[in-house]
Amino acid sequence: MLEVRNLSLTYPNGKQALTSVNLSVQPGELVILLGGNGSGKTTMLRCLTRTLQPSSGQVIVDGRDLTGLQGEKLRQARMSLALISQHPSLVRRRSVRANVASGALGHYSDTLTALGRVPRPELDSASHFLAEVGLEHLAEQRASTLSGGQAQRVSIARALAQRPRALLADEPIASLDPEASEEIMRLLKRLAKTDNLAVLCVLHQVDLALDHADRVVGIRHGKVDFDLSRDDISRDRVRNLYLSEAA
Amino acid sequence: MTDRSSTIDMPLATQANSLIHKRGLSGVLQFTILLGVIATIAQSLYVVQARPQDLITGAHGMADIIRRAMPPDFSKLKSEIWPTLETIDIAIFGTVAGVIMALPLAVLAARNVTPARWLYSVARGIIGFTRAVPDLVWALVFVAAVGLGPFPGALALAVHSIGMLGRLFAETIEQMDMAPVDALSLTGARRMQVFTHGVLPSVIPSLLGIALYRLDENIRSSLVLGFVGAGGIGFQLLTAMNLFQYQEVSLLLIIVFVVVLAAEHGSAILRAKLG
């Protein structure tokens, strides 16, 4: 389970980016974050992965508070939280299989993974994760040869190889065509259920959010504007979120 | 940049005056630059004491040397094989040792991956120093330290290559796409794992290309290092010149030509394959 308690972030220039954000994502649940540009969605994900240090509040993954951790403890804690970003960020010259297996490196010592070596069990497991995203047949291909949609699915397989408890996705379909976008959203929803993952996804596509989310959370000016199940949310409510953000 | 709207608002005569004024200024600037260039060339001719007439009067002497160098003395070809091999091996040793020492320095000297600011400064300092001192000077230092022969030459090329390779390697690492590296860090991978699985696979073809180019350069340099006693074919060339063995000199020049050309082509072919 992923839990965010009273998360706030104030930049050194005094700008309040997040204000007392509370949010929880249960295992097996897909929660979608909506909000206009600059509303604080990506900032929140960066606080969750600790690439930004929140000013106050807690980020709890599987009962473990990540906010106060440093060094080796933070590295270990990061393994429980996988991030899929807007661009797949694969190592283009390596094979798809090696890219997927690299998600698990943190579970092994430097000696076992020296000189770019990937442990044999992880190379085998990569087939399983690639099968989950429907790309097992591309395992030996170079990452540079993949289409945008395929590369994003490989990055999801890499995230799964990490064996996380929660999956964060920051606009994972931003650069994909409608068909590939639909596929990725279906995949995230399925993985939440089959792998019992807490999935938190930032999106700009309202229709896809309403089609796939179990819950939708609206963020405005760094605060939670609404947190509703898909059945309880109306399009007007979402439209108001963007209108008020623009104003 | 000219403000177009303000120019349009001006009366025609004022616009013309303004343009003439600007052209006049740029004309003065151009004339000043031209004078500067001429003055620079003139002072260099004065300092090097250039006397083109000497080339004409010396033509007879040059023709005499060429005549005495013909035909090349191919009977000595067998005895030149070892010095040639020595020359190539000096370059190979220098390049390999240079790569081994330059790579860790380059990692420390690349802003985007260096673990600490002070390490960056130290690494940049070493790279700058080893590059600033020419390989010929390094060869003189090592000849004095370890004696005559190919080993001081190889050491000289290794040390100079640290600077040349270190800088180019660091620049390549700085220019790489950091997104895959950041993504790997966020999976919980350790620093060394991020380096060996994220940084290295992305830059290794470029680094190999640079190293091959350096090998090509080092082969040229190792030919000259022999002149200061650092072994190889350069040493043979110097000895033959001092003994007025011009037919042997011409043979050695043919060997130099073939070696340099082969190194250049071989390096270019391998670099193209990497690309």
Percentage of β-strand residues of chain B: under 5%
Radius of gyration of chain A: 18 Å
Strand content of chain A: 15-25%
Q: What is the string of helix and strand elements of chain A?
A: EEEHEEHEHHHEHEHEEH
Tally of helical runs of chain B = 12
CATH fold field value of the largest domain in chain A: Rossmann fold
Sheet having the most strands of chain B: none
| Range of helix content of chain A | 25-40%
Number of helices of chain A: 8
Which architecture of the largest domain in chain A does the CATH hierarchy give at level 2? Answer: 3-Layer(aba) Sandwich
Low-confidence stretches of chain A: none
Order of SSEs of chain B: HHHHHHHHHHHH
Number of strands of chain B: 0
The biggest chain-chain interface is:
A-B, 35 and 20 residues
Quaternary arrangement of the chains shown? heterodimer
Structural class of chain B: mainly alpha
Distance between the termini of chain B: 41 Å
Query: What distance separates the N and C termini of chain A?
Result: 35 Å
Q: In the residues of chain A, how many domains can be counted? A: 2
Give a structural overview.
The complex is a heterodimer of chains A (247) and B (275). Chain A has 247 residues and is of the alpha/beta class. Chain A has two domains: 162 residues, Rossmann fold; 76 residues, no CATH class. Chain A has eight helices and ten strands. Chain A has a six-stranded mixed sheet with strand order 6-7-8-3-9-10, sandwiched between helices. In chain A, strand 9 and strand 10 form a beta hairpin. In chain A, helix 4 packs across helix 5. Chain A is globular and about 50 Å long. Chain B is mainly alpha-helical and 275 residues long. Helix content of chain B is 83%, strand content 0%. Chain B is built from twelve helices and no strands. The longest helix of chain B has 36 residues. Chain B is extended, with a radius of gyration of 27 Å. The two termini of chain B are 41 Å apart. The N terminus of chain B is likely disordered. The interface between A and B is medium-sized, with 35 and 20 residues.
